[in-house]
Amino acid sequence: MQRLIPGFIAAAFLAAPALADPITSFELDNGMEVVVIEDHRAPVVVNMVWYRVGAADEPQGKSGIAHFLEHLLFQGTDELAPGEFSATVEANGGTDNAFTSQDYTGYFQRVASDRLELMMKMEADRMVDLQILESDVLTERDVILEERNQRTENSAGALFSEQRMAAQYLAHPYGIPIIGWKHEMEELSRQDALDFYELYYAPNNAILIVAGDVTPEEVKTLAEKHFGPLEANPEITPRDRVDEPPQLAERRLIYKDARVSEPYLIRTYLAPERDSGDQKAAAALTVLSDLLGGSAATSVLGQALQFDADRATYTSAFYSGISLDDTTFGLVTVPRPGITLEEAEADLDAVLAKFMEEGVDEAQLERTKMMFRAQLIYGKDSLQGRARGYGVALTGGLTVQDVQDWPDVLQAVTSEDVMAAAKDVFDRRRAVTGYVMPEEVSQ
Amino acid sequence: MIRKLGLALTFICAAGIAQAEVQIEEITSPGGIDAWMVQEDSIPFTALEIRFEGGASLDAEGKRGATALMTYTLEEGAGEMDARAFAVRTEELAASFRFDIGQDQLSISARFLTENRDEAVALLHAALTETRFDDADIDRVRGQMLSSLASDAKDPDTIAGRVFSEAAFAGHPYASNSDGTEESLNALTREDLIAARDGVIAKDRLFVGAVGDINAEELGEMLDTLFDGIPEVGAPDPGRVDYALEGGITVVPFDTPQSVVSFAQPGITRHDPDFFPAFLLVEIMGGSGFNSRLMQEVREKRGLTYGIGAYLAPMNYSEFLGGYVSTDNARVSQTIDVVKAEWERLATEGVTQEELDRVKTYMTGSYPLRFDGNAQIARIMVGMQMEGLPLDYIATRNDKVNAVTLEEVNALAKELIQPDRLHFVVVGQPEGLESTN
């Protein structure tokens, strides 16, 4: 058992001993990783089981199977009838749900802390003893198709995002949507789900995260009792997806849809992610996205296009560093009515060029860092948010230590680091530039 | 990718708060401002939740959207600071102010660090009392609202909500979008915004909840500073409106693969003596989670949708019982038939003891789980005050839930559930479905 204390926070920001709350992590004999986040403010606990498998690990032609399987994990085991898992959580006053991403699949319950053991017992059961009926599988497949309808088919923006990601990744599976391509989802079978389940659902591919009114000792005892007896799967191997080939040609997309009200431009660049023990470049990009596209009144894009000149209704930059493989850095601008997307793109490029020439405003950099420090404090208010943060990081190739180091790495970013990162990332050969516009408008 | 939809229906959580460890204090500042607070020293910040009752429904005649435009412009400069200087100052303090406007309330959710609390409060005070409302800022924010109205006009969910509201609450502010229309927004002036501010940001409309690293005395002084200079009395209430939509189907043609359906019938007020039985009844029918009747019949058994639910909507000036579902255009007709059949079954047969017990167990068991987080508790406390609930409600709420009998629920079901008043607004290209009337 290893107790890690984020010493930096207490030292660098306020003399508040409460901030140095312990995060405990340890591993069971079968390889299951456990993280405990103590918070005794309320008699509540969040129990999460994360699997190091996501949509990007699916076999070819089976897109959507990771997410489909996530739904099917509520459809029964050798001990639980279909729906009984959630019904039991509810009967105990709790709530439960699950989520799937490119790099992870996670399941959680939020319950009174004295119900933790029951949750662990049920999670351990469905980790290895899934039993699903063909009829339930077919009904649930209709549900995920309706989910795709709701999330994607009914939204012009979501449809374009799929096209953009498909263009961004030439070979890597991040180019395939998490929910799956519709024509492949329609063919997913019970056996496809079970094959995926047997390959990836095992204690040595899982992380238990418990946050709330509980001690690490209690969690250890319960985890050993319920997850401990499960056998590791020797077939689990490190995730090694295909590498992107060199990207040498910018891709430019035009998407027209009658449901788009106002044209907008979005450009994403292939960008490095946070790597274990090496988070510096990602930290610089995190700062860069905030400097360029944070608050409209203070960010580089907002000031130039929404304040100094009345050229855009909305501007933004986005970057999320946690990802197993290469991620993206994005820029968005919604031009004022009457300004074409070609003009909007020229505006955007002019602002970027000026930024590359003039560099970082040191006062803005300091404010950004101050906000990151404050975010650490505000972030402690959400139990589920903290638990989720660890889950995303640990399934994204990072360690507990990396998560604890991250605030320091962010604070150490200099303006030179930011400019170097910007120079690397703003390479149009690795970019996808998309024009999204109403069907009837010609540009 | 989340397995089911989270519902952003704040008013349903009307039913209550905390117990056990949370120690709520009711305070009155030296200047006479009431607030509920919890001192929670473990994290060095304070979450302050402020509500002004009335919200966008206080818009003056012909000024629809004024309160919303005013709200969104509050952080665009105050006193000596223009919009940029205000934003820079907020960032320097690492404070966070979120301004929201709804039909029933203007909310300000503020978070600030203990180390610079006074400065953050001074900044927020300036925003409320020395708002600049410079023309360039008004125009910029107005442009964003116009953009958002344009995108709402092509969003099936928003279209469904608009068509429903227009038909259900004609003649009342509830009938129209609180963000106004292109025409009404374009006509608004700086004077209109000042009038809108002074109409809603007033002491007789104010409710406060605070949780964090602060004691009662400090909070009292802080509130007097923060609200110094705001009017004692705001604009008059718009008055009640009766829900007026009859049963039927309204199809709004929209070219999209999945139809979005809103359905509703008359509801019940928060202060009705039958509110608890009604709440339990609707929870059994369409509450959150996978076990409601609608979720079981429509999603689990038939795979017709990803999410369906029903909820009570008690509002300031009216009330209804609403629901939502979305499904492929080819299957809307079937889905509506299932919902209608369930409505009929609920009205005639009521619920079973087992269903009632299950929902009671859930509601009472989940009760203490609501309080995780300072901001969350601050929101809950403000909600309680706005509903006129006493502090001791906290101790009695679970007993009230448990005291509801099957007879009460089923007697109420016959009265409340009205299959002939159920109206569906369908936005999409539903196959084999046409508007009634």
Label this structure with key terms.
heterodimer, A: 443 residues, alpha+beta, Cytochrome Bc1 Complex, Chain A, domain 1, 2 domains, seven-stranded mixed beta sheet, five-stranded mixed beta sheet, 12 strands, 18% strand, disordered N terminus, B: 437 residues, six-stranded mixed beta sheet, 15 helices, 41% helix, globular
Could you provide a short overview of the structure?
Chain A is of the alpha+beta class and 443 residues long. In chain A, 43% of the residues lie in helices and 18% in strands. In chain B, a hairpin with a 4-residue loop joins strand 11 and strand 12 (319-328).
Describe the structure.
- The complex is a heterodimer of chains A (443) and B (437).
- Chain A is of the alpha+beta class and 443 residues long.
- Chain A is 43% helix and 18% strand.
- Chain A has 2 domains: 21-226, Cytochrome Bc1 Complex, Chain A, domain 1 (2-Layer Sandwich), CATH 3.30.830.10; 251-437, Cytochrome Bc1 Complex, Chain A, domain 1 (2-Layer Sandwich).
- Helix content of chain B is 41%, strand content 19%.
- Chain B has 2 domains: 2-226, Cytochrome Bc1 Complex, Chain A, domain 1 (2-Layer Sandwich); 248-370 and 390-428, 2-Layer Sandwich (Cytochrome Bc1 Complex, Chain A, domain 1).
- With 437 residues, chain B is an alpha+beta fold.
- Chain B has a 6-stranded mixed sheet with strand order 1-2-8-3-7-6.
- Chain B is globular.
- Chain B has 15 helices and 13 strands.
- Classes of the chains: A alpha+beta (443), B alpha+beta (437).
